[in-house]
């Protein structure tokens, strides 16, 4: 009985911290309609800043907390709102997501530059205090967390229900255009919500540091837990978000207490937020077919069959010359770039043409890699089998997740990625107890690898273009522009989406197999959940609507780790630049390559 | 007071308003009528600052407002009641009124039904009650100019009559008004000026029956 | 030959009743569905084409109850529609828009050019669909609906955005379509078109069926004039 009480209290404490983070997320989303994927990253950077002030510079804890939560975080929120998010008003969901990912990746870069990796212990608040309840001990820090959660809940309630500003914020959630006709200042409200949202991210981050340790990625991804809580409130309702956060904290705490501690169940516990994310999404009503208004987007021109052939020929020529000229290290790196390029081709199909934003595409790469690695021998057959397994997983996730659309679908793919990460890719099921597997190469020399990667890239690229020109491509784009019209013309919209999703997963899986045999050793650490985010970022920056964009993106993806190992500080700066570029480029999904082609930018008719 | 000269506007490359000129003198009521798709709502959007004119000039009270955002115009005394239910459905009736920054008691005196429902969510009321609530803004915010899009759309005649009573009162109080209707002789009855719009232009032909039923009636 | 029956259809949005217990029938020929804005015409189209489930009532096509069927299943039974707020595929060309519809019914894409010529927008064939004028986009939706070879065609304000000559050409096209044995339901504000081409007219007002009759009966009906002119 006392154990139950103790675990309940722990659950409420963790849930309280989640609630603080999730509350900020809901506030910013509902007033600005931009879902901030970088919310957790703001909390992370602010927690680092708190460490700097309180531990490194020796300021009193309360003063450091006040400076970070009361001054730095709100200011930062204001800056983000003013210079990134305000420019995205009314933009499609994929674009706001990419801007958020840009902020996220940029912030991680900033943190890595300012605070290079090392252990950074953070003292809990009121560590000399604490209460015994029965046999369990509730620390001072736990009490502070609970008090903060209650204060935040009360503060947000008062703000939204008792003040004019809060009333105007709620009005904006309901009908933003009408609110403007009422004379409320939309930018001021949105700026305020970003300031408060950032402050809450900072507070939540700092409260969680003694629990999760200061780490760039862990804290950033902790936000998935906040998404789940926010989704319980449908991203609108703060009370339900708090209920969701506390519920999540309790479930996690009870899972620690009462589930067996075998390897599988340990992975399972870590996957609980993602599992609940799925449950919540499945409980949502099927999103209706949108009716009304012409949608259209201008992609880069699709080359004809002949032009594709000529392009592929030129590409082959260049690659053959390169294979003869460069040394084996560079050849290997170029092969890797092309393999990444194939992954990005899968996103050209899914995101560029199909309009579906996936935050879990790298997971399919992992599935393909594991399949080939587990088969133990590398052949064309095993590579294709890898693609097939990835396609099957893709079809499965599509069947579950495609009942929702837009932002919810993107979050579902991220939830799926986390689920696969915890339950499969990071567990011994995938890469064995040692966490890595040996894979024989398809061809031995690096230049031969380059030729193989180039051949597959050319084939898949031509295939993607053929799909675009053909029946399936027209259908995909028709579904993206108007699913309602598609349905009334006799198309089964759902099956078209499932088909596209699995095809895209198959391409990613094929790339995964190539990656595995190129590397010779693949490990769980190659397929971490976080890798999904830069993937989307590079895809969009380079150009997610064209094959050449995929090639350029692959090259950039290959260069980043090279830069990181050679010049760590420079890599951090590069990452920041990427974040800035994403935020700036986000309005043009045709990306950098479209600048080269001087193509028309994204427009709304 | 409201002065449009040769205004063009549209969505993307599709032009909806093709050179509209319209003048509503201070303290008068103009009824703007016309069939669906004529561009009436687009005109309202241009006036309220929600859509920028691609050519031409928009003046309100003598001030050039082509580039003014909607919230600024609203604070300067333009009360636009857009088409549909122009209320916040998930706020209570009382909260809707608080957002208007006016004397709620005036509204309650005028529409007792709203007083009885002041703690109810506005979206849960009937269409007529929602329109009364939306219309309240013209009543209590002391606007200089009122623009109403499709005042009587989907409402029972009794309620339309009740709302037009308020229109008359406001007109008597010297408020400049532009009332957009699809089908309404009621609107023509209170208006100092009736303007008919077809195909994105002001029509020369002001005979309503001929616009709707063709030359045959 | 196709007969549509709408029986006691009611659609509620929260407390608001958009369509209230409407029953009507549609036979071969042109049936007009008229009424002031907000009368529930488009909502009724959504119910018939399967995009919206009614809160109560049934939709019956040729003695088959299709109330529970999805929009794509109804399309296969021969129901097609256009939209009041345009739903063309803006990223595709005009020609591709029609091809998509042809392919969805496994018909040859070579028919596309003929369909575009038939509605009179062949000149726009290679333009991206979100760049064509409203009138052409409406005709494109018509061509796209015809590409599914429908027996019941629901047209939501097809003439808005058309000039006089185009409207007349559209009227002639209506006659041809009926001659091919199709049933057409027309939501329309152009009364010349309604009075000149419809065999039967249903009038909706405030979500309810006000009256039904031939065009001349409707023109003489006191309640209709009142609903329109207030």
From TrEMBL, chain A:
GO cellular component terms attached to this protein's record: plasma membrane
Localisation per UniProt entry: Cell membrane
Transmembrane segments: 6-27, 34-53, 59-80, 92-115, 143-160, 191-210, 216-233, 240-259, 265-284, 305-325, 331-350, 381-400, 445-467, 498-516, 536-560, 567-586
Keyword Transmembrane helix: yes
UniProt keyword list: Amino-acid transport, Cell membrane, Membrane, Transmembrane, Transmembrane helix, Transport
Keyword Transmembrane helix: yes
One MF term in the entry's GO annotations: branched-chain amino acid transmembrane transporter activity
Alphabetical list of Pfam families matching this protein: BPD_transp_2 (PF02653)
Entry membrane topology: Multi-pass membrane protein
Coiled-coil residues: none
GO terms, biological process: amino acid transport
Family under the similarity heading: Belongs to the binding-protein-dependent transport system permease family. LivHM subfamily.
Protein name, UniProt field: ABC transporter permease
Organism annotation: Lentzea alba
UniProtKB/TrEMBL annotation, chain B:
Coiled coil: none
Keyword annotations: Amino-acid transport, ATP-binding, Nucleotide-binding, Transport
PROSITE patterns (alphabetical): ABC_TRANSPORTER_1 (PS00211), ABC_TRANSPORTER_2 (PS50893)
Biological-process GO terms, alphabetical: L-amino acid transport
Recorded superkingdom: Bacteria
Entry-linked CDD domains: ABC_TM1139_LivF_branched (cd03224)
Pfam families reported in the protein's UniProt record: ABC_tran (PF00005)
Annotated ABC transporter domain residues: 2-217
GO molecular function: ATP binding; ATP hydrolysis activity; branched-chain amino acid transmembrane transporter activity
Statement: the UniProt record of this protein carries the keyword Phosphoprotein: no
Gene3D superfamilies xref list: P-loop containing nucleotide triphosphate hydrolases
Family the entry assigns: Belongs to the ABC transporter superfamily.
Record's protein name: ABC transporter ATP-binding protein
Species lineage: Bacteria, Bacillati, Actinomycetota, Actinomycetes, Pseudonocardiales
Automatic annotation (TrEMBL), chain C:
Pfam families: ABC_tran, BCA_ABC_TP_C
CDD domains referenced in this protein's UniProt entry, alphabetically: ABC_Mj1267_LivG_branched
Keyword Transport belongs to the record: yes
Keywords of the record: ATP-binding, Nucleotide-binding, Transport
One cellular-component annotation, GO: plasma membrane
Domain ABC transporter: 4-229
Matching SMART domains: AAA (SM00382)
GO MF annotations in UniProt: ATP binding; ATP hydrolysis activity
Protein name per Swiss-Prot or TrEMBL: ABC transporter ATP-binding protein
């Amino acid at each position: 009985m006392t154990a139950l009480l103790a675990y309940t209290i722990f659950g409420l404490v963790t849930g309280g911290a989640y609630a603080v983070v999730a509350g900020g997320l809901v506030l910013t989303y509902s007033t600005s309609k931009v879902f901030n994927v970088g919310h957790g990253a703001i909390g992370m950077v602010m927690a680092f800043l708190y460490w700097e002030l309180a531990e490194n510079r020796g300021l009193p804890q309360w003063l450091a907390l006040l400076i970070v939560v009361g001054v730095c975080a709100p200011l930062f929120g204001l800056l983000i709102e003013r210079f990134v998010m305000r420019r995205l008003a009314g933009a499609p969901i994929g674009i706001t997501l990419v801007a958020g990912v840009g902020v996220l990746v940029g912030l991680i870069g900033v943190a890595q530059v300012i605070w290079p990796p090392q252990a950074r212990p953070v003292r809990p608040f009121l560590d000399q205090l604490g209460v015994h309840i029965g046999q369990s001990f509730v620390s001072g820090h736990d009490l502070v967390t609970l008090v903060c959660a209650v204060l935040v809940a009360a503060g947000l309630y008062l703000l939204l229900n008792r003040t004019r500003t809060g009333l105007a914020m709620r009005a904006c959630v309901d009908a933003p255009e009408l609110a403007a006709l009422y004379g409320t200042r939309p930018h001021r409200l949105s700026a305020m919500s970003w300031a408060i949202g950032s402050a809450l991210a900072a507070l939540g981050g700092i409260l969680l540091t003694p629990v999760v340790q200061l780490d760039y990625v862990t804290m950033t991804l902790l936000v998935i837990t906040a998404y789940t809580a926010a989704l319980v409130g449908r991203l609108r309702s703060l009370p339900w978000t708090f209920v969701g956060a506390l519920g999540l904290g309790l479930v996690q705490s009870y899972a620690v207490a009462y589930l067996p501690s075998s390897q599988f169940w340990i992975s399972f516990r870590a996957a609980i937020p993602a599992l609940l994310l799925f449950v919540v999404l499945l409980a949502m009503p099927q999103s209706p077919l949108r009716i009304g208004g012409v949608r259209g987007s201008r992609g880069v021109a699709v080359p004809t069959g002949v032009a594709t052939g000529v392009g592929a020929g030129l590409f082959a020529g260049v690659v053959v010359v390169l294979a003869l000229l460069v040394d084996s290290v560079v050849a290997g790196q170029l092969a890797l770039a092309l393999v990444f390029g194939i992954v990005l081709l899968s996103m050209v199909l899914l995101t560029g043409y199909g309009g579906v934003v996936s935050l879990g595409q790298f997971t399919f790469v992992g599935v393909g890699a594991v399949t080939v690695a587990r088969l133990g021998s590398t052949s064309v057959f095993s590579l294709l089998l890898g693609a097939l397994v990835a396609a099957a997983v893709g079809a499965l996730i599509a069947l579950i997740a495609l009942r929702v659309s837009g932002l919810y679908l993107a979050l579902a793919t991220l939830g799926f990625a986390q689920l696969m990460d915890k339950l499969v890719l990071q567990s011994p099921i995938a890469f064995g107890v040692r966490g890595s597997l040996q894979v024989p190469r398809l061809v031995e020399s690096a230049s031969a690898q380059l030729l193989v990667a180039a051949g597959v890239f050319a084939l898949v690229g031509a295939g993607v273009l053929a799909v675009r020109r053909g029946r399936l491509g027209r259908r995909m784009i028709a579904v993206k522009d108007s699913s309602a019209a598609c349905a009334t013309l006799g198309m089964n919209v759902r099956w078209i989406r499932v088909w596209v999703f699995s095809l895209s997963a198959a391409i990613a899986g094929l790339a995964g197999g190539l990656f595995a045999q190129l590397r010779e050793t693949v490990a769980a650490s190659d397929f971490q959940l976080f890798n999904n985010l830069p993937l989307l970022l590079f895809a969009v920056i380079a150009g997610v609507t064209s094959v050449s964009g995929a090639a350029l993106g692959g090259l950039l993806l290959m260069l980043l780790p090279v830069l990181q190992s050679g010049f760590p500080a420079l890599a951090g700066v590069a990452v920041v630049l990427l974040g800035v570029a994403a935020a700036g480029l986000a309005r043009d999904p045709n990306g950098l390559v479209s600048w080269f082609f001087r193509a028309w930018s994204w427009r709304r008719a | 007071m409201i002065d449009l000269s040769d205004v063009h506007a549209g969505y993307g490359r599709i032009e909806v308003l093709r050179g509209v000129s319209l003048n509503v003198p201070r303290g008068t009521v103009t009824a703007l009528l016309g069939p669906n798709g004529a561009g009436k709502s687009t005109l309202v959007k241009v006036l309220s600052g929600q859509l920028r004119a691609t050519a031409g000039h928009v003046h309100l009270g003598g001030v050039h407002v082509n580039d003014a955002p909607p919230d600024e115009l609203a604070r300067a005394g333009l009360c636009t009641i857009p088409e549909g239910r122009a209320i916040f459905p998930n706020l209570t009736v009382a909260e809707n009124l608080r957002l208007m920054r006016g004397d709620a008691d005036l509204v309650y005196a005028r529409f007792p039904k709203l007083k009885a429902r002041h703690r109810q969510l506005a979206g849960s009321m009937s269409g007529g009650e929602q329109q009364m609530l939306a219309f309240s803004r013209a009543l209590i915010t002391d606007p200089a100019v009122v623009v109403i899009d499709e005042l009587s759309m989907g409402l029972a005649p009794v309620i339309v009559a009740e709302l037009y009573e308020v229109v008359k009162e406001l007109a008597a109080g010297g408020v400049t008004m532009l009332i957009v209707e699809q089908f309404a002789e009621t609107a023509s009855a209170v208006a100092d000026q009736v303007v008919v719009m077809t195909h994105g232009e002001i029509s020369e032909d002001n005979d309503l029956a001929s616009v709707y039923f063709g030359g045959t009636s | 030959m196709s007969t549509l029956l709408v029986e006691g259809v009611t659609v509620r949005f929260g407390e608001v009743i958009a369509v209230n217990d409407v029953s009507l029938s549609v036979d071969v020929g042109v049936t007009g569905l008229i009424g002031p804005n907000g009368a529930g015409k488009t909502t009724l189209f959504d119910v018939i084409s399967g995009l919206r489930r009614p809160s109560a009532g049934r939709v019956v096509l040729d003695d088959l109850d299709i109330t529970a069927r999805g929009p794509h299943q109804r399309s296969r039974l021969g129901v097609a529609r256009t939209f009041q707020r345009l739903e063309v595929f803006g990223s595709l060309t005009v020609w591709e828009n029609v091809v998509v519809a042809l392919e969805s019914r496994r018909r040859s894409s070579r028919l596309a050019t003929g369909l575009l010529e038939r509605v009179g927008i062949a000149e726009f064939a290679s333009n991206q669909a979100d760049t064509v004028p409203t009138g052409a986009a409406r005709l494109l939706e018509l061509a796209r609906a015809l590409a599914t070879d429908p027996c019941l065609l629901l047209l939501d304000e097809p003439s808005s955005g058309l000039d006089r000559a185009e409207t007349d050409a559209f009227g002639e096209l209506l006659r041809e379509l009926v001659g091919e044995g199709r049933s057409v339901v027309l939501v329309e504000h152009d009364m010349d078109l309604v009075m000149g081409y419809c065999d039967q007219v249903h009038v909706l007002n405030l979500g309810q069926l006000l009256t039904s009759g031939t065009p001349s009966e409707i023109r003489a009906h006191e309640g209709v004039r009142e609903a329109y002119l207030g």
